[in-house]
Amino acid sequence: QAINVYYNYTGNTQCLNTSQAATANLDDRGWSYQACTEMVMPMCSTGVNDMFEPQPWDFNSYADACFKQWGVTPRPTWITTEYGGKNISSHSNIVFSNGGLDPWAAGGVHKNISDTLIAVFIPEGAHHLDLRSKNANDPASVIRARELEIQYMKKWIRTSRR
Fold first, then answer.
1. Any bridge partners for residue 97, and if so which?
2. Which residues pair with 40 in a beta bridge?
3. Ramachandran angles phi, psi of 66, nearest 5°
4. At 99, is the secondary structure helix, strand, or coil?
5. At a CB cut-off of 8 Å and minimum separation 6, what does 11 contact?
6. Least buried of 4, 44, 46, 51, by fewest C-beta within 10 Å?
7. Distance (Å, rounded) from C-alpha 82 to C-alpha 37?
8. What pLDDT, in 10s, does the model give residues 135-153?
């Protein structure tokens, strides 16, 4: 049933093809919508400390673009208000996986916070590689990470059933 949330959110699919890594209608527009509604991440460049032309962060222009494309106004503090930002010690049952080849890993959780807030580092892992379908070319560290993630989830499910 859980996999239906991703593959069959409409309830119309009779047979799930779980061998594919994504659905045909999942593209970069999904991330654009999420960035406009939940994950506002200011992007800017100085032209001094990077290879790009100078472009300062302009929230108003960003908000206008989000409204034009999606009809929504960004809420830049929503995610920290909803989930607590860096103060997540009251949360539980989360595995934070970070790949050594993932440019976003620098912003990830790298140490266990508690016995139910677990950090898994994947040296040969790329962005979300451990969350994709298995592949014959998966590095050993990705295979081990998946095993650990499943192990923790099973443990937490068993604990919740007691």
1. 120
2. none
3. -65, -45
4. strand
5. 4
6. 51
7. 12
8. 999 999 999 999 999 999 9
